[in-house]
Amino acid sequence: MCGRYGRRADKQRIAEWFRTHNTNVFDDPELAPTYNAAPQTLQPVIRLNSETGEREIVLMKWGLVPYWSKTVKHKYSTINANADHLTSSGVWREPFRHRRCLVPADWFYEWPVVDGEKQAHAFNLKDGSPFAFAGLWDRWKDKKTGEVLESFAIVTVEPNEWMSKYHDRMGVIIEPRNYQRWLEPGEVHSLPFDLLRPYPEEDMKSWRVSDKVGNTRNNWAELIEPVPDDAPKSEKKTKRTKPPKELPTQRLIDQDFETHRPLDDLLPSSLGDQRKPASNLGLWGSPSGLPCHMRHLSISLSNSNADFLRNGSFCTISTSRPRIALELRGTIVNGLEEPR
Q: Minimal CA–CA distance to 95: which of 182, 201, 216, 35?
């Protein structure tokens, strides 16, 4: 798959490389060159203008939303389109026929496993020139608000032999001489299936980069700087866990008590009765001698000696034997447990 890429080209270089005419879209400060383009972000793509037929730069969200989708959210990822499913999947069929685009990039990232650990690597063309991923796009409209969202996906194929050492898929890279052919819509008999192939490995290179690229919030030029292959993997900061808070306990009765009542007598039917007197257990738990009412009970076995404890607003019946667990949650007021 292709799940992260970078682009250092400015609007002038993209316009020259892809021969586009509208470059005002890059006046938006949000679309400065990115060193860590991630899914669900807005990225520039190249498509043909439906009226003029000229190439134009358009901002789209990475992660294709089909025009027929009821919502913008998906149960599955649509950042990549498997080339084997372009004509069989309802998500890709129409975009492949009528809405193809080019995704400008200068490199992309993958995380191969080396010595049992993932390492971030960057990949680009040996001559360092910009390139274009084969993309598909679609337009979704919210029927309630009328809001329109344009989004795209990158087409992937099985990798070349060299790339297969790093991942089992790779994005389709379109050569400049085939840009126009990829962009032009066509019928089934003229679709550019022959362009769906891995890029020649002899024209590509890779190098290890900082593991910080794994965090989508990191986006600076140093991410693309080479890192020695034998450099240790950067350690992740571990979250500090707070020790459990110990609540002071206060014993409300001094003597043990014993109950031999059946389990059905201890628990309300289906817990529907939210206020069951503790006197049913043979226990008078409040200092004033009034019965405490229980709002929530959980029990495994009865027939055991137990103590009645109070921790602030949390009350419980504990036991010297581990097979019983009766629990009371709430606040005791004048010997009565008030539901929260």
A: 182
115 φ/ψ sector (left φ>0, alpha ψ -120 to 50, else beta): left
CA distances 133 to 92, 94, 231, 234, 236, Å, are 16, 19, 31, 30, 32
Q: Convert the pLDDT of each residue in 161-211 to its tens digit.
A: 999 999 999 999 999 999 999 999 877 778 999 999 999 999 999 999 999
- DSSP letters along 244-306, please? PPPPP-EES-SS-EE----HHHHS-GGG--S-EEGGGGT---STTSPPPEES----S--SSEE
* pLDDT, position 26: 54
Active-site residue flag, 225 = no
Residues 332, 292: contact at Cβ < 8 Å? yes
Rounded CA-CA distance 280/278 in Å is 5
Give the C-alpha separation, 301 to 270, whole Å: 17
Q: What is the DSSP letter of 203?
A: G
Task: Write down the catalytic residue from 2, 101, 292, 315.
Answer: 2
Place of tokens 């190249």: 46
Dig out the tokens for 278 from the structure.
């503790």
Query: Looking at 51, 54, 110, 202, which residue is catalytic?
Result: 110
Under 8 Å between Cβ of 39 and 3: yes
Residue 265 backbone phi and psi in degrees, to 5: -75, -25
110 is catalytic: yes
CA angle 268, 307, 283 (to 5 degrees): 50
Domains of the chain: 5-224 (3.90.1680.10), 250-338 (no CATH)
Dist CA 204 CA 114 (whole Å): 20
CA distance 320 to 322: 6
pTM beyond 0.70: no
DSSP 28: S
